From TrEMBL:
It comes from Psychrobacter urativorans. Keywords: Flavoprotein, FMN. GO terms for cellular component: cytosol. The keyword Flavoprotein applies. InterPro entries: Flavoprotein-like_sf, FMN_Rdtase-like_dom, NAD(P)H-dep_reductase. Its cofactor is FMN. This is NADPH-dependent FMN reductase.
Length: 184
């Protein structure tokens, strides 16, 4: 395992009170000191247009460089209308282009989903797998984390319930192993 691990974090929800952000913040708090984690902000990214491939868009360059420099990408996201949210798909597309310059090729990627509903945002996770497979990324497939009825896993002050904390701690351990494993 390398001495230090760089993680890029993407939150698929843009809203301030996002429950996915709360779970992500808890996971970040559980990362060991050897991990440097930086959020890739996606709210300001113009909608991807192939015409932009021949121009320089600062926000596109920013996220491409962040993703390129990361040992692994952690995505924490809801689903919107049974698919990944549009803002999340946008950064997937931006990172995938220009043609043959994709930042996703061989990139280690893990996705955690959460929803107040009973499916836990699983469709968003499955969508991400589909895109990442096509882009030759290396998806972490086990464990799969889709937090259903996720409001019940948050206390009134927004902190994560002890039961879900334990669950997420195990995920963080596995994810850090995955991110730092250079032979994988
Ligand atoms: C446009 C839209 C579509 C949604 N579609 C789904 C859905 O398909 N499945 C689901 O479980 N929840 C759906 N929801 C509810 C979200 O799971 C819920 O708003 C959740 O809190 C979003 O995550 P966040 O708090 O991190 O923003 C939808 C919400 C919005 C705003």
């Amino acid at each position: 395992m390398s001495a230090s691990i760089n993680i890029a974090l993407i939150i698929g929800s843009l809203r301030k009170e996002s429950i996915n952000r709360k779970f992500a913040e808890y996971m970040v708090s559980q990362m060991p000191e050897s991990v440097t984690i930086k959020e890739v902000y996606i709210a300001d990214l113009p909608l991807y247009n192939q015409d932009y491939d021949d121009t320089t868009i600062d926000s596109y360059e920013r996220v491409r460089q962040q993703l390129k420099g990361a040992d692994a990408v952690l995505i924490v996201t809801p689903e919107h209308n049974r698919t990944m949210p549009a803002a999340l798909k946008n950064v997937v597309d931006i990172g995938s282009r220009p043609y043959k310059e994709s930042v996703w090729t061989h990139k280690k990627v893990a996705v955690v989903t959460a929803s107040p509903g009973s499916f836990g945002g699983i469709n968003s996770g499955l969508d991400m797998r589909k895109s990442m497979q096509m882009l030759s990324a290396q998806m972490m497939i086990d464990p799969e984390i889709h937090l259903s009825r996720a409001i019940d896993s948050l206390n009134d002050d927004g902190s994560v319930s002890p039961r879900t904390q334990k669950f997420l701690q195990r995920f963080v351990t596995d994810f850090v192993d995955f991110a730092g494993n250079t032979s994988a």
